[in-house]
């Protein structure tokens, strides 16, 4: 790097120096020659102007021999050749040659210009003198008429000799200046490349993580400022890296302390980060950048991850893996196109729920036998006329019936909550089912002076469902509605919306306070305990209804307020999976 930069800078200087010192002599020599030629031309012109008055009388009177002798004498004194040419271009006098032996000069360019009234100038090889000459010609006039031309000329070898001598000196000066320039260029190149190379070496060290690296330059100017800025940047990077390292250590500590299983996946499903709980649960040593399905062969987890990526939103689902139950929460991080999955081990909770359900089922079975016996004995005693304590027996019977109802509801609820509980799916005509249920409650409603009404919407289609469980749902809802309605009646509405059937059961009873609505589907929850006990309620009816609806993949909502009655809305899919 250092040599490369030095060669580039020094080479650039050399190219500039060479171009400069090649162009300067060429241009300067041409300018100097032009200057000297112009100066000599002006001198010759002045001489011609000075001598013209002396030449004019002899030319006008045609005293050519006298004129020729005058010119030869004058030419020796001024060290220049003088030629006089008449109007016809004939040479009549010359300082160097015999005019009679000279050819016509009528076509010479400088003579043509002079005869035209101007100043003629020309540079060419002289055949007569056999050397390159500079010619300047002026017209000799009298009363505005041209008598002839006086032409001054001088050999250009004088200028060439002067220029050659000057070129030698200039060349020597250029060589010395070039050598000096090369030396200066070398020092300048070294002065630039050395600090830049130092900065490059420091930058490479910084890139490798050596944040303590600093650059100290003796040079000034921009490179000094660059070195100072580099050192400031290194200081900040060292501080930021230290802070980042501390934060990473803190993050590692936090992640390691999380008891739940945690892993971070990129958009392709590669594992980017895990905690100690994950590594213990899934033998996850060396899982970095592996695909999650290489470590966790769990179809439910794979399905959940795929769903999160497709919908780009968070999801929570229970999954079972290696005889353990997990509540899996997957968060989609849109800024990084990553997913954070946290698995909560709920195996113990599931076991407790299973034990609870088993306990309910067992206790219900255990209670049913003695209760049945008690009820049988009570009924037997009632039939005997001798018994006078009929009032007490009625109380025993009523409480026994209530216990039997509770046990029956508990058994049904326990059955509905079983994980593998299967629905016996068949085609169910909701209209027929509702009509049959209304007939069951017809006498009870009439005894209380209540009306029962069924409204059926257009194009209501049969649905695929479990008829027995839907019948239980209708019975529980209608039983509650009639029990808690003193006047008015109960209305059932059956309608169709797309692929869903909507069942609405509305009464004009006492209603439910708004504060109690969120909890009415909880088991054993009753709004008015005294009224419920009086009417024989168990507190399990609505819980059973909700479980039946959820098993069919539907929803149930309740709307109510005191004194206005209650409305239950059930939405069931036409095809239960």
UniProtKB/TrEMBL annotation:
GO CC annotation: membrane raft; plasma membrane
EC number, UniProt record: 2.7.13.3
Protein name in the entry: histidine kinase
GO MF entries: ATP binding; phosphoprotein phosphatase activity; phosphorelay sensor kinase activity
SMART domains linked to this entry: HAMP, HATPase_c, HisKA
Domain HAMP: 190-242
Annotated compartments: Cell membrane; Membrane raft
Superkingdom of source: Bacteria
Lineage of source species: Bacteria, Pseudomonadati, Thermodesulfobacteriota, Syntrophorhabdia, Syntrophorhabdales
Classification via PANTHER family: PHOSPHATE REGULON SENSOR PROTEIN PHOR (PTHR45453)
Catalytic activity from the UniProt record: ATP + protein L-histidine = ADP + protein N-phospho-L-histidine
Natural source organism: Syntrophorhabdus aromaticivorans
PROSITE patterns, alphabetized: HAMP (PS50885), HIS_KIN (PS50109)
GO biological process terms held by the UniProt record: cellular response to phosphate starvation
Chain ranges of the Histidine kinase domain: 362-576
TM segment ranges: 6-27, 166-188
Keywords: ATP-binding, Cell membrane, Kinase, Membrane, Nucleotide-binding, Phosphoprotein, Transferase, Transmembrane, Transmembrane helix, Two-component regulatory system
